Each structure stands twice: as structure tokens, then as C-alpha cells.
Amino acid sequence: QVQLVESGGGLVQAGGSLRLSCTASGGTFSWYTMGWFRQAPGKEREFVAGTRPGGSTVYADSVKGRFTISRDSAKSTTYLQMNNLKPEDTAVYLCAASPAGRNWHRGAFDYWGQGTQVTVSS
Questions:
Q1: Can you tell me the distance from the alpha carbon of 51 to that of 72, in angstroms, rounded to the nearest whole number?
Q2: Of 5, 61, 68, 113, which is most buried with the most CB atoms under 10 A?
């Protein structure tokens, strides 16, 4: 069983930056595809960014050029650096792990963290 714990959320003003962390335990981190998702009240959970074991990355169009996903295998930690934040980025951000890594859809991920709140004010 894999456990994921997010941290780093908070309240920032538009244009500011925030760095989220997701630490994994109970599995082989280097084998997992890792992803960040976000969900606002009344809206569907959406894919934000992902990284495969080989280091490749993919981003949703809405965050491309502003967010950067990375991973540190020694610390079993996945990061999401968020720059130039906008009010529409406000959501609960969740970390997820996929042993198979078949695609970037929500259903492909087997393990999820508890989520961390990100609020961007104008």
C-alpha cells in the first residue's frame, strides 16, 4: 500500500508563487507515474501536471508555462512549483500515484493524498 502526503498549500495573492510537495511511502517511488490534480467546489477533479519515471512531464493547457512538476527519488517526493498564480487556480490540490501509468486520467491513478488547499486572492 502506498501513502501520499501533500504539503505547501496556503493563501497567496494573484501573481505570487507557491511550491507543493508530495511525499510517498510504502512503495517503490521510482516505478510510479506521479500526477497532480485539483478540484474546486462543484467542479470535476482535473489533471494539472504529471511526470513519468523516466522524467518526462506533461501539463494541462491552463497551467503550461506557469507550473513545473519535478521529482526527487532520494526523498520519494514530487513537487509542483506554481508561479504567476491566478484566482482560477484556487482549489484543493491532490497528489496521485499510478503503478501502471497508462494515461493521465483520474481513473488510471490508484493512490491519492488527502489534498492541500490553495487559495489565490485578487
A1: 11
A2: 113
